[in-house]
Amino acid sequence: MKIVAIISGGLDSATMLYKLLNEGNEVHALTFDYGQKHKKELKAAYILTSGLGLPHKIVNIDQIKELIQGSALTSDSINVPEGHYEEESMKATVVPNRNMIFLSLAMGYAISIGAEAVAYAAHAGDHAIYPDCREVFVDSMRVVAKLCDYKPIQILTPYLHKDKGDIVADGIKLGVPFNNTWTCYAGREKACGKCGACQERLEAFKKNNIKDPLIYEEDE
Questions:
Q1: Which of 39, 71, 104, 146 has the greatest number of beta carbons closer than 10 A?
Q2: pLDDT tops 70 at residue 93
Q3: Domain range spanning residue 36?
Q4: What is the pTM of this model?
Q5: pLDDT tens, 38-58?
Q6: With DSSP H G I counted as helix, E B as strand and the rest as coil, what are the percentages for the chain, rounded to 5?
Q7: ∠12-17-21 over CA atoms, to 5°?
Q8: What is the per-residue pLDDT for 71?
């Protein structure tokens, strides 16, 4: 199957990418620069896809920051909160309507190149905070994807009912180079280890009894 995969450079989308390739699919990677503070993930996405020799587009849509304010990931006036994803403070990391925007653009790209599907790495650990990673959202987008063009587009979410620990376990089997992925939201040179994204990542590696290969600020 020919698939457009939304690749952030993070652990989840990297593992999804390897999974799709392992299943024999033709994958075209798509990454968005939406004005996020943690731009290091863009470099991670480039390294991942380059190493696999895949077609990869990094699309600059950072001007949408003017329309989707109020998130710690895009607004300079809001600090990235520390703590676990399930804490109320983590709602500050929600970027308004981000996945609908990404999926809409990815569907347009898929239609233009004759791809049959779009894939993104929503997972169960995101459900508590992110509305656009929940099953009801995915189901609704699947309806839209069948109607947006003459030929229906599938939306694939292989990890929708898996948590990050499950994704790390899958990545180990698939040989994902976790050292080339980036998760931290803080936007600094090294991963902070304290934001919700970092904590969830560290817990996932601990669940699998292996050490995260990334170097964190606290490791100094």
A1: 71
A2: no
A3: 2-219
A4: 0.91
A5: 789 999 999 999 999 999 999
A6: 45, 15, 40
A7: 150
A8: 73
Tell me which DSSP letter residue 81 carries. Answer: P
98: exposed, middle or buried (Cβ count in 10 Å: 0-12, 13-18, 19+): buried
Looking at residue 78, its pLDDT comes to: 67
Residue 23 carries which side chain, given as an amino acid letter? E
Phi and psi based region of residue 209 (left: phi greater than 0; alpha: psi -120 to 50; beta: remaining): left
Q: How far apart are CA 11 and CA 58, in angstroms?
A: 17
Please state the domain count of the chain: 1
> Following DSSP, what letter does each residue of 186-210 receive, concatenated?
S-SSSB-S-BHHHHHHHHHHHHTT-
Residue type, 148: C
Which structure tokens are listed for 85?
A: 């994803």
Average pLDDT, stretch 172-189? Answer: 93
User: What's residue 67's pLDDT?
Assistant: 82
What is the signed CA dihedral for 13, 213, 95, 112, rounded to 10 degrees? -30
Q: Is 211 helix (H, G, I), strand (E, B) or coil?
A: coil
- What is d(CA 82, CA 195) in angstroms, rounded to the nearest whole number? 4
Residue 213: the pLDDT is 95
CATH number of the domain enclosing 123: 3.40.50.620
Average pLDDT over residues 23-48: 93
